[in-house]
Request: fold
Amino acid sequence: MRITQGQFSFLPDLSDDEIRAQVDYAIGRGWALSVEWTDDPHPRNCYWNMWGIPMFQISDGAAVLYEVNACRKANPETYIKVNAFDNTRGVESMVMSFIVQRPTVEPGFGLQRTEEHGRTIRYTTHSYAANRPAGQRYDA
Amino acid sequence: MNKPVEGRITDMKERYKGGVLKYKQMGYWRPDYEPKDTDVICVFRITPQEGVDAIEAAAAVAGESSTATWTVVWTDLLTAHEDYQAKAYRVDPVPGTGEGTGKEPQYFAYIAYDIILFEEGSIANMTASLIGNVFSFKPLKAGRLEDIRIPVAYAKTFKGPPTGIIVERERLDKFGRPLLGATMKPKLGLSGKNYGRVVYEGLTGGLDFTKDDENINSQPFMHWRDRFLFCMEAVNRAQANTGEIKGHYLNITAADMEEMYARAEFAKSLGSNIVMIDLIVGWTAIQSISNWCRKNDMILHMHRAGHGTYTRQKNHGVSFRVMAKWLRLAGVDHLHTGTAVGKLEGDPMTVQGYYNVCREGYNKQDLSRGLFFDQDWCDLKKVMPVASGGIHVGQMHQLITLFGDDVVLQFGGGTIGHPGGIQAGAIANRVGLEAMVKARNEGKDIANEGPQILKDAAKWCKPLEVALETWKDVSFNYTSTDTPDFVATPTAS
Reply:
């Protein structure tokens, strides 16, 4: 399967030039950029690991690409995303987020059902990769 | 301050001697009045009956929407009556009406209401005054509430959207692109199991949300509990298939509040992140369910079913921009606000005005978009506009150009009607959407290059190619009935 979180998961994986164009768009609007990675892409996992703190008031998109590549090198076979943050009053939240690296194999998620009273079912989404310890989840 | 105004009787003995006076004599026409920052201000489009003077008609609207009755009553003198009187303070002819135009004369009447007239946090109370009696009033042929300025002091008494755009996106973990939805079709007749199948296919294919239609409640073909159970199976399966959060707007509209609460509670117990109501449930029910959603971390989707009975006719009723303002105060998270390019009524600039009402922290006066007043929303949360009704992926560039990122684009027929199946329809829409957002961010002029951007993506995405071919000639080019009436005046430099 292919996890479809983020802005561009239905498109072919972005090249570094394409990532740079998106980063430049964010910089042009005064947004801060950050890089995050995880080996637990559960849809409710809203806290991926931060690759350093967000880059505020940057003017050169190359710096973001540098961090993306450093993160890739340190964390191969994980998910990495680039986020943009807008601190304008009334927004103060993420305004862009797109995946820039995926593991070679994405085993996906299973759905566990617990039957309850009536026909009610409680659902739990379970990541197959998370069966293995952190750090070994996407090893061959 | 108290300089004499034409018509207004200031001598108290004369004013209250009993009998019938003109409204302007009673003090409802006050051209010298300067609205206070705490006043509610309304602009009504009025069409006086033949022979009725425009100013007297405006004064009558002010009177009938505040303290007046048809005759003089001495009991006014027991009150600080001048404060309770609404004050018509400005009357302008509507451009393009009246003598020489072949259209009967219409006027914009500006009326100010003191804040003491209104109960805090109650749309029911505000509407009972402002649109209570006046629309049936005989001296007017027709009247329409075009716009309203809610003072900050009053706006602050409303809780507003229970979730708002920002928190909704954080809960869904979706940023930087419009959300994608679809209304389940056919609206009526599917069993719970078949209905859930459509939900499952749409969400697995790539939609963020699917939606009950306005008149899906609990009919013989599909009991509400059955619908909720099958839909939540579909939502959870789709979530596992994609690793992405999904939702289905479960319509909890019912005959009474007790039943609405019961349906809301069941939706919550099944793990739904969103519920839906129709506008026709009424203001009090809307505010009640909004409170419930606030307490229960639920997004509230508002389908504006029935709004056309208020909003469609340009000379009579209530403009949708006013409805949108009331709904933002009352507290809904999603609001259908039109598509401009789809099958339902909507002039593009006017529709953009509604979007601004939903999404901006401060609306500047913008007559070209129908906004008569500055409106400070004093940090009230933002409402996510929903574009739904006869739109398809071939219009993606127009939709994103018109409405930006904070909108739910709902392609119902444009998903389910795809010749390759519902999943293929959803894929086509999502690929079209992402390709367009990416291109816009790269600096492409999508308004003009949009069709080519879609064609290029269709080269590697068969479902998109089929969608573009299927709906290539579909457009709904009818003249809008509701367009702003103003004459652009050059700004003095």
Notes: The mean pLDDT of chain A is 95. The radius of gyration of chain A is 17 Å.
